[in-house]
Recover the amino acids of this structure.
């Protein structure tokens, strides 16, 4: 088809423009990119146990931390006793007892150790208290409580580190310095230096 004159070219141009506009208006719009969602921050639960804690929770937590405990038996306290439950176990060849008391105040009365407290004959070499939980580790026989040796030295460090997370602040009466445990009198922390070894306390 031939279009003569300027009017024909103008009409053709207007027709093409109108057609292009109509096609553009009917086309599906390109979806806009959605904003990138920010990752939800992970909330790390506080592993510190509530007061009063249970002997079962502490025993399970020690096992979950990699300490190879062997449970032997468990006993319950009398209604009039401040003791609720005691789990008797074995850890690195030594007897281990995890005791739950009714309140932290009740346990504090039983563990009001002086600053230079050391276990005597018939007492375990290592005793650690935190909240309402008492940990006793080692034999109670012999002329005097023996000191941890060999793998037991690292075992004490691992146990103390786990208990510190669960039950801090901790107090101890021990034949050796227990890393990260405050002195019985509430004095400065003992064993906070990385170089501290589990050696007999003075």
């Amino acid at each position: 088809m031939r279009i003569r004159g300027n009017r024909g070219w103008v009409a053709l141009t207007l027709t093409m423009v109108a057609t292009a506009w109509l096609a553009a208006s009917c086309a599906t719009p390109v979806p806009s990119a959605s904003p990138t969602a920010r990752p939800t921050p992970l909330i790390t639960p506080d592993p510190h146990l509530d007061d009063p804690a249970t002997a079962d929770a502490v025993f399970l937590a020690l096992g979950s931390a990699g300490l190879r405990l062997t449970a032997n038996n468990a006993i319950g306290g009398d209604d009039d006793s401040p003791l609720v439950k005691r789990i008797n176990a074995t850890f690195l060849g030594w007897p281990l007892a995890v005791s739950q008391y009714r309140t932290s105040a009740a346990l504090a009365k039983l563990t009001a150790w002086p600053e230079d407290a050391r276990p005597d004959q018939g007492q375990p070499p290592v005793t650690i208290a935190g909240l309402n939980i008492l940990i006793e580790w080692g034999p109670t026989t012999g002329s005097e409580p023996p000191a941890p040796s060999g793998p037991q030295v690292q075992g004490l460090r691992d146990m103390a580190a786990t208990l510190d997370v669960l039950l801090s602040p901790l107090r101890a009466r021990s034949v050796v310095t227990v890393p990260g445990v405050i002195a019985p009198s509430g004095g400065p922390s003992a064993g906070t230096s990385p170089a501290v070894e589990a050696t007999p306390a003075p």
